[in-house]
Specification:
Strand content: 15-25%
Strand order of the largest sheet: 1-28-27-26
Distance between the termini: 95 Å
Number of helices: 33
Structural class: alpha+beta
Helix content: 40-55%
Largest sheet: 4 strands, antiparallel
Number of strands: 32
Shape: elongated
Length: about 1000
């Protein structure tokens, strides 16, 4: 331990702690509470947490005050429960005290038994209840007690166990519990002057110890001579971590694992690990020197009371690191320091003499443990205890130096890579360069990359580039060695190449692209160059390499990646389709958003090459896919497909293409997308006459189509002539062209030719007559040859004349019927009852109605104008107009209002000679005529159907009960207070 940096310090806590009640005989501590026992039977409690102290005379409780001495005192980790044993001439008595009690309670069942040790149940103890507590006595017995503070007495005292083989006093006890699926498991350790016993089991304590009647007790025996045998657990977060037994042979210590599954030979679960014995000879000079009289355990140290000094021994290195001296009074110095005790809850240690209490404080005892473990070469624990990077660097440096000295250079490189401060990067690399260890240097650089911070981009790039060159050098050396053909060398070569590719993949984002590619190229590593280019998404290089190697399929696989620009598809299309047309076209067909127009140069290059007759034309396959499946409308693609069809000997594909309507199923879809003029020129050039006929027809050049069709096939010409349906004259002209051709082409006897011509006329469905084709026959033809045809024609004319006469007679009868209906309509009437009411205002229809006069209507005597419907409903004219206007749609309502306005204006004009030279009667007639017309329009608008029986009533179902224009009127209604009993005025 460095000077001036003491971990353990001693301070006087209380000079006269016994308060005049004799001298201190024993002490216990827990949770900043110290309990003292004195030689006169007093128990003194110092609660330093609240600054309070109290004392209790236990000797008075047995009737002999002043004659009893406190043999032992114990306090729980929480500082609430206390057990003390008084020993005197009258025997021994044991008391229980609670922090809230003013009087102790004697444990009668323990009378006569000297209690040397107490084990508390740290995991389950509370302020109100002790739960299970084990007492160890001077006669080798173990007892269980439990006390609840509210009961003011013990709940029970049970006998648990007694040593039979070697009866000795129990000197110290410790207990730990753990919860399992089967219940609570108890772990108990007890020591006598020569043995350490361990007990364990699941269930009640009584059952656990009862099980040892049938099995042997596990113990460790260390004979020797020591003033006091002690057992201590180090507690961290309420759990025991390790233990120490102060025995005659030394300090027996080890770790505690209360969840271990391995078992000891006798069947007990062994929860002790990493056992060791610290021999006193390492701590005490001379064979007759005094052995420790007391022990305390911290996380990393043992505190040993030897004489009047406390020696601090490191538990790991077993070296004395400090000695603590005490400032005692002259009276107490002769007796020396009596003992040590620890407060696990507060993390403090105490020592005491006859009068005083001393506090031993711990100040960061683990700060130098990394160095302790490092000296012992326990590197993992050393690293776990390092506090800063410089300490870790020293651990890594020592590990690296040890491995370097042992010529384990790869392992040394891994440790050197973790050093950041105490050794520079250049020094480490020179170590490996100087001995020619390229592989170890590469390992160092790789590990260094793993340990560098991501912000050190420049350093990462430089190291990664250097590592790349080292990999390439290693690969090159393996290739140059003579035994590269051997299996081992081949495996090593394949392994290093695989490792190098993995490195390139991991470092693709930090390596400089241009520099790395130059390195790969300079070493001739084409495969790795392509691999790296693929990683950096330099797909052009990758594809170009595969094309050079003739591997079209691999190049197409690269092009299929989503991240590859579509422009590369167009750039490499000419080379790929020439290399492997089938795979290229298949790739195009599964690629989305590909523009066939940009692939035309590649397809034309492929089409210009000669192909076998039976070979599938891949370009035609792709263009058919675009045109029919993708419904591509690009004229270039359609023109190219048409040109390829035209070059085929079989004209059927070309005709099917020309006859296909590509826009079918789409609104306003075009019938074709190719250039018809280009198609016509191409078909004429390739002598595809049927296709030319179709194109002429499609371009509405029917005369040219028929003329060309007559050169190919008269049947085709007839079909073309029949296509014209909307122009009768043109259709007749086309059929005359066909007829002329037929007449002129017929050869044989005259009568046979005439017979064939007459048969042709029947195919025209009456469009041509015999008189139409007579001019095509020679002048010397005899009329007798046409007699039959002429008679047939005259009979047709006669039938048409008779049919027209019948149609004229039917029209005449229809006109007479209409006149009769009009006359009957003027005589139609309806009977109105005297008490008939208006369907809107509910007033009588036939009563005088001055309020119901309507402009433009003349009253019938004193009655107002009204409407009567066949269904029986009647309405005043004004009421019907108002009702229909309100219920109909806005457009109809505006029309009704406009008609009413016009009627009003015409009805107000004077009926006098205002038309110049017209007479009065003529003037009146000219004014009535437009008035009647407007009145008729108004009648049609409002009275076309009954408003209660027609569509208007049906539409009213969806209307609100209160119209928007009526909402303000309803809101103004007032409900009078007298109409609402017991309510205040309510206004809507």
């Amino acid at each position: 331990m460095e000077a001036g940096r003491q971990v353990f310090t001693v301070d006087l806590l209380e000079r006269y702690a016994a308060k005049g009640h004799g001298v201190i005989t024993c002490m216990a501590a827990g949770n900043d509470v110290i309990v003292l026992g004195t030689s006169k039977g007093w128990v003194i409690r110092h609660d330093f947490g609240v600054g309070h102290s109290s004392d209790i005379d236990l000797s008075a409780g047995v009737g002999r005050p002043g004659e009893q001495s406190i043999h032992s005192v114990f306090v729980d980790p929480g500082g609430c429960h206390c057990i003390a044993t008084v020993v005197g001439n009258g025997g021994a008595d044991t008391f229980y005290m609670h922090a809230k009690w003013t009087k102790p309670r004697i444990l009668n069942k323990m009378k006569g038994l000297v209690v040397n040790t107490v084990a508390w149940n740290r995991q389950q103890i509370t302020e109100a209840s002790t739960r299970e507590v084990i007492l160890g006595t001077d006669n080798g017995q173990l007892h269980e007690i439990a006390v609840d503070e509210k009961d003011k007495r013990e709940k029970y005292i049970k006998f648990l166990f007694e040593l039979a083989e070697l009866p000795e006093a129990f000197k110290d006890l410790q207990m730990e519990t753990a919860s399992t699926s089967n219940g609570t498991r108890y772990y108990v350790m007890a020591v006598t002057p020569t043995r350490l016993y361990s007990f364990t089991g699941i269930g009640l304590l009584e059952a656990v110890f009862a099980s040892y009647t049938d099995r042997a007790v596990h113990f460790m025996e260390l004979p020797g001579d020591i003033p006091n045998s002690e057992l201590h657990f180090f507690i961290k977060q309420r759990r025991a971590i390790h233990f120490a037994w102060l025995s005659g042979a030394g300090i027996y210590h080890g770790g505690l694992n209360f969840g271990a599954q391995h078992s000891s030979p006798n069947g007990d679960q062994n929860f002790v690990e990493n056992k060791a014995l610290l021999d006193y000879s390492k701590l005490i000079e001379g064979s007759g020197a005094t052995k420790p009289s007391s022990l305390a355990v911290s996380e990393y140290h043992f505190l040993l009371l030897i004489g009047n000094k406390v020696k601090v021994v490191n538990r790991i290195s077993e070296q004395i690191v400090e000695e603590l001296h005490f400032d005692q009074t002259s009276e107490a110095a002769s007796k020396g320091i009596l003992g040590l005790c620890s407060d696990a809850s507060a993390g403090l240690f105490y020592t005491y003499d006859q009068n005083s209490i001393f506090q031993v404080s711990v100040n960061d005892e683990g700060r130098d443990m990394w160095k302790v473990y490092l000296d012992l070469k326990v590197y993992a624990q050393a690293l776990a205890n390092c506090r800063d990077p410089f300490q870790r660097d020293q651990v890594y440096l020592e590990q690296a130096e040890v491995a370097f000295s042992a010529k384990d250079f790869v392992r040394a490189a891994s440790f050197y890579a973790k050093i950041n401060y105490i050794l520079s990067f250049e020094e480490i690399t020179l170590k490996f360069i100087s001995i020619g260890e390229q592989d170890s240097l590469r390992t160092f650089l790789l590990r260094k990359l793993d340990n560098l911070d991501k912000d050190d981009k420049c350093q990462i790039t430089m190291i990664s580039t250097w590592t790349t060159e080292l990999y390439l050098d290693k690969i090159n050396r393996l290739l140059l060695e003579d035994d590269t053909t051997t299996e081992s060398r081949s495996q090593e070569y394949q392994s290093i190449v695989k490792e190098f590719r993995a490195f390139l993949s991991d470092s693709k984002d930090v390596l400089d692209e241009a520099t790395t590619m130059k390195l790969l190229e300079s070493y001739g590593r084409v495969d790795e160059l392509v691999y790296f280019a693929n990683l950096k998404e330099q797909y052009e290089i990758v594809i170009h390499h595969y094309i050079q190697q003739g591997e079209a399929k691999k190049a197409l696989e690269v092009l299929q990646k989503p991240s590859v620009p579509v422009d590369l598809q167009y750039k490499f299309a000419p080379e790929l389709i020439m290399l492997d047309a089938y795979e290229t076209v298949e790739s195009w067909m599964i690629t989305k958003n590909l523009n066939p127009r940009k692939l035309i140069p590649a397809m034309m290059r492929y089409s210009s090459e000669p192909h076998a007759k039976n070979e599938t034309h891949e370009v035609i396959k792709y263009l058919e896919y675009c045109v029919h499946r993708l419904q591509n409308e690009d004229a270039g693609a359609h023109n190219l497909l048409l040109s390829l069809y035209a070059k085929q000997e079989d004209e059927s594909s070309l005709l099917r293409f020309l006859q296909c309507k590509f826009g079918k199923g789409r609104p306003n879809g075009a019938d074709f997308f190719y250039d018809p003029k280009y198609a016509l020129r191409l078909c004429l050039k390739e002598k595809r006459m049927r296709a030319c006929v179709h194109i002429y027809s499609m371009m509405s050049m029917h005369e040219e189509a028929v003329a060309l069709a007559l050169q190919v096939d008269p049947e085709l010409a007839m079909a073309e002539a029949d296509k014209v349906e909307d122009d009768e004259d043109l259709r007749k002209k086309l059929w005359l062209m066909v007829a002329k051709h037929v007449v002129e082409q017929e050869k044989g006897t005259k009568r046979e030719n005439i017979r064939k011509a007459i048969a042709f006329l029947k195919e025209t469905d009456g469009l041509l007559k015999i008189e139409d084709i007579l001019p095509f026959f020679p002048d010397f033809a005899l009329i007798d040859d046409f007699k039959e045809a002429i008679c047939s024609s005259l009979e047709d004319y006669n039938q048409q004349i008779e049919k027209l006469k019948e149609e004229m007679n039917d029209a005449t009868h229809g006109a007479d019927n209409i006149r009769n209906d009009i006359s009957a309509l003027a005589q139609r009437y309806t009977v109105i009852e005297r008490d008939e009411e208006c369907g809107v205002c509910r007033r009588k229809i036939l009563t005088a109605g001055g309020d119901h006069q309507v402009r433009g209507y003349s009253s019938v005597g004193p009655m107002a104008p009204f409407y009567v419907f066949p269904c029986g409903h009647a309405f005043h004219a004004q009421c019907l107009i108002a009702h229909v206007t309100r219920c109909t749609d806005r457009t109809q309502a505006e029309l009704i209002l406009e008609l009413q306005k016009q009627l009003t204006l015409l009805g107000n004009e004077p009926k006098e000679n205002i038309n110049g030279g017209l007479t009065r009667n003529e003037t009146i007639t000219s004014m009535i005529t437009p008035l009647d017309k407007i009145r008729s329009q108004l009648d049609d608008a409002v009275a076309s159907e009954c408003p209660y029986c027609g569509d208007l009533m049906i539409r009213e179902i969806s209307l609100p009960f209160i119209l928007p224009e009526e909402a303000l009127e309803v809101a103004s209604w007032e409900i009078k207070p007298q109409n609402i009993v017991g309510q205040k005025s309510l206004y809507l």
